[in-house]
Amino acid sequence: GRGVPQSNKEATVCYRKAADQEVAGAQFFLGVMYEEGRAVPKSAARALSWYRKAASQGDKGALERVAELEATRSSSGLEPGGCANCGALQGPDGAALKPCARCKAVVYCGKECQKKHWKAPGGHQGSCSTTEKAP
Fold first, then answer.
1. Beta partners for residue 107, in sequence order
2. CB within 8 Å of 131: residues ≥ 6 apart
3. Could you say which DSSP state residue 84 is in?
4. Which residue has the higher pLDDT, 29 or 3?
5. Cα separation of 120 and 55, whole Å?
């Protein structure tokens, strides 16, 4: 607000509280915070996870960011830093993340995340190089 010093740390705390209550705008801005590394460790995977949550509620900015980040990941050939759906850095019990069986462009911590991400608005189904049938 006016007359109050800007604090990315305080903003992150507020966004997180609202995001946990399914407020799409807060989920989108948490995605921005992670994407840009503002008061949180920079993480494309976590940013994408928050953008997807907002996108699933119809947030247009989040839908755009999901599409852009998915396209960047697919075209770059770079392995993502975490589960493409939830941002986890490893699977259950410390297991390694597993790549999409079709394109190998994204990784998942488990089958549930893979299924959710495939069907989500802006999800992997639209960017997978081979889309014959759902996983």
1. 99
2. 102, 125
3. T
4. 29
5. 8
Model confidence, pTM: 0.60
129, two tokens: 């190089």
CB contact at 8 A, 50 and 34: yes
Tally of residues, the chain? 135
Cα–Cα distances in Å, from 36 out to 11, 45, 51, 87, 106? 14, 12, 13, 16, 21
Tell me which residue of 28, 37, 59 sits closest to 121, measured CA to CA: 59
Residue partners of 2: CB distance under 8 A and separation at least 6: none
Query: Phi/psi at 68 (nearest 5 deg)?
Result: -65, -45
Mean pLDDT score, 107-117? 89
Name the nearest CA neighbour of 73 among 24, 117, 38.
Answer: 117
Q: What is the pLDDT of residues 26-84, one digit of tens each?
A: 999 999 998 999 998 888 778 888 888 888 888 999 888 888 887 776 554 444 467 88
Which amino acid is it at 97? L
